[in-house]
């Protein structure tokens, strides 16, 4: 899994680690929600707290062709904002001696590999640029990012796509089996005050920790009033854990690299192969209530 760990990446990490159909063999970090140093520290804190055994590898500190676009001021507390409890700093877990590029390259050399990416795609793009033949070892490339309609970071662009559009372009052109879980899918999986309350009722230390982070997430836009929010990264992870809850459609996906107002926008042409050759499968329908119910069970059981 490749991530820029904030709140929803942390949930996605737990979902994929607990998925019985997959073995989590490695975690790589990237600048995105916050700096590389902070995303790596956040990831180490999460894996230590929940006993996730996979090694953590630090990755790219900058996007391919621009300065980092971080959003700590929105996400709070080093991208792990909370209304109370926080993840303790890791005491035992440390970053692996191999960097993310080396580790991902080695894993693909052993192949085949499913990659789940919940941040900007800088790390896999670097590997695919350096070793394009390793594309043959990518069994599935599942990423949270993009949108077939409107954006969230700008009017046109979703944040992960905007944070490194050149990297997304590399992935889309690599000839690998891409599955895109964009805003059109994640907005079908809202988390709200009911889930915060359910976690508080569970009464365990971990459930209460999650409740405090959910509480902040629901109050990002209005500190006084919680409101339902899309559960972005866990939706992509849930597609691997429970694929029967998702419907995907073939599409031609391209990312805008040059527009002064549309940089990072993802253009999804679903009229394939009539008007274009498909290069991805895009999530179009999600059984959102059931996804949320199952994610909540993972959090309560943590």
UniProtKB/TrEMBL annotation:
SUPFAM superfamilies: Nucleoside hydrolase. Residues 1-292 form the Inosine/uridine-preferring nucleoside hydrolase domain. Keywords: Glycosidase, Hydrolase. GO terms for molecular function: hydrolase activity. Gene3D superfamilies: Ribonucleoside hydrolase-like. InterPro entries: I/U_nuclsd_hydro_CS, Inosine/uridine_hydrolase_dom, IUNH, Ribo_hydro-like. PROSITE patterns: IUNH. PANTHER family: INOSINE-URIDINE PREFERRING NUCLEOSIDE HYDROLASE, URIDINE NUCLEOSIDASE. This is Nucleoside hydrolase. Pfam families: IU_nuc_hydro. The keyword Hydrolase applies.
């Amino acid at each position: 899994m490749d991530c820029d760990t904030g709140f929803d990446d942390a949930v996605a990490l737990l979902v994929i680690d607990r998925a019985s159909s997959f073995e989590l063999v490695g975690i790589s970090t990237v600048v995105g929600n916050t700096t590389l140093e902070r995303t790596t520290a956040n990831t180490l804190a999460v894996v230590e707290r929940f006993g996730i055994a996979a090694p953590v590898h630090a990755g790219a500190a900058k996007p391919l062709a621009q300065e980092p676009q971080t959003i700590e001021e929105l996400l709070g507390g080093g991208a792990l904002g909370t209304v109370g409890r926080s993840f303790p700093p890791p005491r035992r877990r440390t970053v692996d001696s191999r960097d993310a590029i080396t580790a991902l390259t080695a894993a693909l050399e052993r192949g085949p590999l499913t990659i789940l990416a919940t941040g900007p795609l800088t790390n896999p793009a670097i590997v695919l640029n350096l070793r394009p033949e390793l594309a043959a070892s990518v069994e599935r490339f599942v990423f949270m990012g993009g949108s077939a309609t409107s954006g969230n970071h700008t009017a046109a662009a979703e944040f992960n796509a905007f944070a490194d559009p050149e990297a997304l372009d590399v992935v889309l052109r690599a000839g690998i089996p891409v599955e895109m879980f964009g805003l059109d899918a994640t907005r079908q999986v809202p988390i709200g005050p009911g889930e915060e309350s359910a976690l508080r009722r569970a009464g365990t230390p971990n459930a209460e920790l999650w409740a405090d982070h959910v509480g902040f997430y629901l109050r990002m836009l209005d500190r006084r009033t919680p409101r339902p929010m899309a559960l972005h990264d866990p939706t992509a992870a849930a597609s691997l854990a429970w694929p029967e809850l998702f419907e995907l459609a073939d599409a031609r996906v391209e990312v805008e690299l040059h527009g002064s107002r549309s940089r990072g926008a993802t253009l999804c042409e679903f009229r394939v192969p009539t008007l274009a050759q498909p290069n991805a499968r895009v999530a179009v329908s999600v059984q959102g209530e059931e996804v949320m119910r199952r994610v909540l069970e993972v959090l309560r059981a943590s």
